[in-house]
């Protein structure tokens, strides 16, 4: 994740606050729609960038796996290049969240590579047709992970 993106995500968390998530670390599923934070959807536009929270941007792939119970914490879209980033808070620990992505990317015919370079966070790269990107899965607290999906777009 580039420094601008990290700053945005951090700023979005400070402004919006972390959604209160209590999880038992159980395995997330995809059988139900994504849960929003309960707060109204927020969107701000700054030049070519649209910042938001609470709902998936239109540029997010429809068939991409999203865990049941995940909260859409922050979104960032560059309307010129198509760069899209979505940060989810998932009510499961890091390893269970990573397993969710492994199983569900494979089930949806995505090619992917996963690693745990520092022994704590999981990093994925994925591709399907012309779409490619990455996922960073990091711990938030016991039984709660943050999964940040980044799709670089054309730029």
Distance between the termini: 15 Å
Low-confidence stretches: 1-38
Number of folding domains? 1
Radius of gyration: 14 Å
**Largest beta-sheet characterization:** 8 strands, antiparallel
Mean of residue pLDDT values: 80
How would you describe the overall organization of this protein?
The protein has 155 residues and is an alpha+beta fold. It has one domain (3-151). Helices cover 18% and strands 36% of the residues. It has helices spanning 3-16, 94-107; strands at residues 42-46, 49-53, 71-78, 84-90, 111-115, 122-128, 131-141, 144-151. The chain has an eight-stranded antiparallel β-sheet, with helices on both faces. Mean pLDDT is 80; it is low at 1-38.
Give the topology.
Elements: H1 3-16, E1 42-46, E2 49-53, E3 71-78, E4 84-90, H2 94-107, E5 111-115, E6 122-128, E7 131-141, E8 144-151
Antiparallel strand pairs: 1-2, 2-3, 3-4, 4-8, 5-6, 6-7, 7-8
Q: In short, what is this structure?
A:
The chain has 2 helices and 8 strands.
Keywords for this entry:
155 residues, 8 strands, disordered N terminus, 2 helices, alpha+beta, 8-stranded antiparallel sheet
